[in-house]
Amino acid sequence: MASFKETMVKFARAVFVRAQKVLLPACLFCAYFLGIGPMAAVSRLARLLRRRAPENAVTFWKPAAGYEADEAESLEQS
Amino acid sequence: MNILGISCYYHDSAACLVKDGRVVAAAQEERFSRRKNDPDLPLSALNYCLQAGDITMDALDRVVFYEKPFLKFSRVLLGHVQAWPRSFGSFMSSMPLWLGERLTLPLTLKEKTGYSGRTHFIKHHLSHAAAAFLPSPFEEAAILTADGVGEWATTTRGRGAGSGITIDGEISFPDSLGLLYTAVTVFLGFEANEGEGKVMGLASCGQPSFMKEFSRLAEVKDDGSYRLDPGMFDFYGGRMYSPAFTRLFGEPRKPGGELTDRHRDIAASLQKFTEDVLLRLARDLHARTGSRNLCLAGGVALNCVTNHKILEETPFRAIFVQPAAGDAGGALGAACYGYNCLSGRPRGFVMDNALLGPEYTERQIELALAREGLKAEKLPDELLFKRTAALLAAGKVTGWFQGRMEFGPRALGARSLLGDPRNPKMKDILNSRVKHREPFRPYASAVTAERAQEYFDLRAPSPFMLLAPRTRAGAADRIPASCHDDGTARVQTVTKTADPKLHGLLEAFGAAAGVPVLINTSFNRRGEPVVCSPSDALRVYLETEMDALVLGPFLLEKAGPA
Ligand SMILES: [Fe+2]
């Protein structure tokens, strides 16, 4: 028979798994409307204020950076 | 030295093992999980690679991941900001995945495989570039990569020489030729990341009468660099195109809806637009590098029509297209980069075939047959080729399962479904009995390398079925099922050295039927991954109207109607 401690651990884990199922979407929902939303507003405002000038460039190529991965650089995830 | 490359978490995950400089194994996870385009951490593919290399996780010197997760996450987050509030659905579905495994790969690897050594991360397009150049036969070459999007980059150009790769230019999100192609694919009622090949097939049935509209989607410079009109696309808002796009092209086609000339013409215009951009990019790259050789990778490089036009219409004289040009090939690129660039070891491996997947012994095949209660004839090679050729010449749809499975989306004679190209109805037969594809989609062909020029106007060998030349005058009458509506054909050239069995069969078919050409399509049912094991092959054989199956030396035939 399972000990009291084991039962409690299982119970706590079950509560955690269920809470996570509700909490994660709730947190994401809040993050989307309270975090991403204001960021979107600021970014749109910034875009309005700094309208892209008509492009006269002869190319849309940009210089590439970060493609010389060596031992140290390649250990970074960003 | 053992290096494992991994690509996963987006589309079509894969693993690849480089052992002392040789790519000894590479496979997509979908082939084992039987879940098409499986994006999960490729644990089965990884285990297969270790087995094939006869090593354990402890023996790995490095694991190299095919992209930089944090960098990609920054783009995804910013994309959701820019598409707020339309990005709500995409945000809610993608974030749990990001916060789960995607940002914690070293931890996940440790938990699931016990690996606690060094994990490296190289940029997505560097993985594509490495997959294109490092296993190529060229000492030096120009490199072009183009796909939907990696972290930020969508197109890169550079040069490879010796064991080094230099990327000197990039075009970045949201400007993406691959995403434009996908947006039009979705508009035409096909699935993103799945239907692009169908649209390429549809294009051969239409006329490019929408070029004016396409010129409004993107501004293209003389050097091929481009910028999309952001008002036309909506990459995070559920569907990929905007209302302005719909105003320009009319109502989108519903999935499964009727295909009209308008849809065919939009597809043909998309194809022409893609060709124009890639030809400009290639010409400019040639002018910059002066190289005769071009290496291509990224999903856009699966466009075999464009690849052949690059050979016809630019000064490049030789081309190597990574057979796993999509993201699965990123695992191979990452592993090769780990060996040649991170470890500084010289190149010595040339990928002259794509047979890097699992193979099965005769005993395993016999066991699979016994499990199904089937009896098969075991034949020596020459007789097997002759008997199979006779079946094919009699119009039988035949499965061809030999040796190691292919790496990449194309079946190249290891897990293939074969048919007689002389029969103009062969496409319909394959469709109605096994493949159940859309009727407009063409089938590819395999031909002996020695006789390819008799049938196709090929500018270079096409071992990976990634070139689509024009068929020669007169050939269309002899092999009508191989020809697409626009007079081109997707071709695999087969040499005796690269694949003695398929080559032997093609020669035997040539002797029996007069043409050393066979329709060669992937051995699977619609919506399923290509078969991997003998049991997978037997399941398709038994559950469809295939006529015959060759499993290694064993030949099975279904009894004809009484
Ligand atoms: Fe990619």
Describe the protein in words:
The complex is a heterodimer of chains A (78) and B (562). Chain A has 78 residues and is an all-alpha fold. Chain A has a domain at 24-51. Chain A has one helix at 4-49; one strand at residues 62-63. Chain A is flat, with a radius of gyration of 25 Å. The termini of chain A are far apart. The mean pLDDT of chain A is 80. Chain B has 562 residues and is an alpha/beta fold. In chain B, a hairpin with a 6-residue loop joins strand 1 and strand 2 (14-19). In chain B, helix 3 (69-82) runs antiparallel to helix 4 (88-102) and helix 8 (196-203) crosses helix 11. The chains are: A mainly alpha (78), B alpha/beta (562). The interface between A and B is large, with 31 and 53 residues. The structure holds fe (ii) ion. Fe (ii) ion is lined by residues 124, 128, 147, 150, 298-299, 327 of chain B. Fe (ii) ion binds next to helix 6 of chain B.
Shape of chain A: flat
CATH third-tier fold name of the largest domain in chain B = DHBP synthase
Q: CATH class of the largest domain in chain B, please?
A: Alpha Beta
Number of beta strands of chain B = 20
Specify the structural class of chain A.
Answer: mainly alpha
Helical region count of chain A?
A: 1
Radius of gyration of chain B: 23 Å
Spatial order of the strands forming the largest sheet of chain B? 13-20-19-14-15-18-16-17
CA(first)-CA(last) distance of chain B: 60 Å
Q: How many β-strands of chain A, per DSSP?
A: 1
Average the pLDDT over all residues of chain A and give the rounded result: 80
* Fraction of residues in β-strands of chain B: 15-25%
Chain-averaged pLDDT of chain B: 95
Number of discrete domains of chain B: 3
**Major β-sheet annotation of chain A:** none
Most extensive contact? A-B, 31 and 53 residues
How would you classify the helix and strand content of chain B by structural class? alpha/beta
Low-confidence stretches of chain A: none
Relative strand content of chain A: under 5%
Distance between the termini of chain A: 50 Å
